[in-house]
Design brief:
Blueprint (H helix, E strand, L loop, with lengths): L2 H16 L6 E3 L20 H19 L4 E3 L12 H12 L4 H15 L7
Parallel strand pairs: 1-2
Helix pairs in contact: 1-2, 2-3
Protein backbone atom coordinates (compact mmCIF):
# COMPACT_ATOMS: atom_id res chain seq x y z
CA UNK A 1 0.00 0.00 0.00
CA UNK A 2 1.38 3.40 -0.90
CA UNK A 3 2.08 5.81 1.93
CA UNK A 4 -0.57 8.29 0.80
CA UNK A 5 -3.20 5.54 0.66
CA UNK A 6 -2.05 4.19 4.01
CA UNK A 7 -2.42 7.61 5.64
CA UNK A 8 -5.85 8.13 4.11
CA UNK A 9 -6.92 4.69 5.32
CA UNK A 10 -5.48 5.41 8.78
CA UNK A 11 -7.28 8.78 9.06
CA UNK A 12 -10.57 7.22 7.99
CA UNK A 13 -10.06 4.40 10.50
CA UNK A 14 -9.33 6.86 13.32
CA UNK A 15 -12.48 8.76 12.43
CA UNK A 16 -14.52 5.55 12.51
CA UNK A 17 -13.12 4.48 15.89
CA UNK A 18 -13.73 7.96 17.33
CA UNK A 19 -17.45 7.53 16.62
CA UNK A 20 -17.51 5.02 19.49
CA UNK A 21 -18.10 7.30 22.46
CA UNK A 22 -16.62 4.81 24.92
CA UNK A 23 -13.20 4.83 23.22
CA UNK A 24 -10.35 7.07 24.38
CA UNK A 25 -7.05 7.51 22.54
CA UNK A 26 -3.63 7.54 24.17
CA UNK A 27 -1.16 9.67 22.25
CA UNK A 28 2.32 8.27 22.74
CA UNK A 29 4.73 5.50 21.87
CA UNK A 30 5.64 7.49 18.79
CA UNK A 31 9.39 7.38 19.40
CA UNK A 32 9.62 3.62 19.03
CA UNK A 33 11.82 2.43 16.16
CA UNK A 34 9.11 0.24 14.69
CA UNK A 35 7.18 3.27 13.40
CA UNK A 36 9.74 3.90 10.67
CA UNK A 37 11.42 7.05 11.93
CA UNK A 38 15.20 7.15 11.53
CA UNK A 39 15.94 9.17 14.66
CA UNK A 40 17.85 6.28 16.24
CA UNK A 41 20.26 6.22 13.29
CA UNK A 42 21.28 9.86 13.58
CA UNK A 43 24.44 11.08 15.22
CA UNK A 44 22.41 13.23 17.64
CA UNK A 45 19.01 12.56 19.23
CA UNK A 46 16.08 14.46 17.74
CA UNK A 47 14.96 17.77 19.20
CA UNK A 48 11.43 18.38 20.40
CA UNK A 49 10.94 20.55 17.29
CA UNK A 50 11.86 17.62 15.02
CA UNK A 51 9.60 15.22 16.88
CA UNK A 52 6.70 17.67 16.90
CA UNK A 53 7.04 18.14 13.15
CA UNK A 54 7.12 14.38 12.53
CA UNK A 55 4.27 13.51 14.92
CA UNK A 56 1.98 16.54 14.42
CA UNK A 57 -0.10 15.09 11.54
CA UNK A 58 -0.92 11.95 13.54
CA UNK A 59 -1.48 13.60 16.90
CA UNK A 60 -3.61 16.41 15.46
CA UNK A 61 -5.72 13.90 13.53
CA UNK A 62 -6.44 12.01 16.75
CA UNK A 63 -7.20 15.15 18.75
CA UNK A 64 -9.55 16.39 16.02
CA UNK A 65 -11.33 13.04 15.85
CA UNK A 66 -11.63 12.30 19.57
CA UNK A 67 -11.46 15.77 21.07
CA UNK A 68 -9.23 16.66 24.04
CA UNK A 69 -11.66 15.15 26.57
CA UNK A 70 -11.16 11.72 24.98
CA UNK A 71 -7.43 11.98 24.23
CA UNK A 72 -4.39 11.94 26.50
CA UNK A 73 -0.67 12.34 26.06
CA UNK A 74 1.42 9.50 27.43
CA UNK A 75 4.93 8.22 27.22
CA UNK A 76 6.08 4.78 26.31
CA UNK A 77 9.14 5.22 28.43
CA UNK A 78 11.59 3.49 28.75
CA UNK A 79 11.12 1.87 25.28
CA UNK A 80 11.09 5.37 23.73
CA UNK A 81 14.49 5.98 25.36
CA UNK A 82 16.18 4.48 22.30
CA UNK A 83 15.32 7.62 20.33
CA UNK A 84 15.18 10.51 22.81
CA UNK A 85 14.69 11.61 26.39
CA UNK A 86 11.44 11.78 28.33
CA UNK A 87 11.73 15.58 28.48
CA UNK A 88 12.10 15.86 24.71
CA UNK A 89 8.97 13.74 24.19
CA UNK A 90 6.85 15.92 26.45
CA UNK A 91 8.31 19.10 25.01
CA UNK A 92 7.25 17.83 21.58
CA UNK A 93 3.73 17.27 22.95
CA UNK A 94 3.75 20.81 24.37
CA UNK A 95 4.72 22.18 20.96
CA UNK A 96 1.93 20.24 19.25
CA UNK A 97 -0.61 21.41 21.84
CA UNK A 98 0.53 25.05 21.84
CA UNK A 99 -2.37 26.38 19.68
CA UNK A 100 -4.97 24.81 21.99
CA UNK A 101 -6.79 26.48 24.87
CA UNK A 102 -5.65 26.02 28.46
CA UNK A 103 -8.67 23.77 29.13
CA UNK A 104 -7.79 21.59 26.13
CA UNK A 105 -4.16 21.34 27.24
CA UNK A 106 -5.24 20.40 30.76
CA UNK A 107 -7.44 17.66 29.32
CA UNK A 108 -4.65 16.25 27.15
CA UNK A 109 -1.92 16.41 29.79
CA UNK A 110 -3.86 15.33 32.87
CA UNK A 111 -7.66 15.59 33.11
CA UNK A 112 -8.56 12.90 30.57
CA UNK A 113 -6.25 10.39 32.29
CA UNK A 114 -7.60 11.39 35.71
CA UNK A 115 -11.16 10.83 34.48
CA UNK A 116 -10.55 7.64 32.49
CA UNK A 117 -8.52 5.95 35.21
CA UNK A 118 -10.77 7.35 37.96
CA UNK A 119 -7.80 8.73 39.85
CA UNK A 120 -8.32 10.38 43.20
CA UNK A 121 -5.71 13.12 43.29
CA UNK A 122 -4.89 14.95 46.53
CA UNK A 123 -6.21 18.50 46.72
Amino acid sequence: MRLRNARSWWRASISDVAKCENVVVKLGGLAMCLLGYDFHLRERPPTSEELAAAWRPYVETCIEAFGPKRAMFESNFPPDKGQCSYQVIFNAFKRIASPLSEAEKTALFSQTATDVYRLQLPS
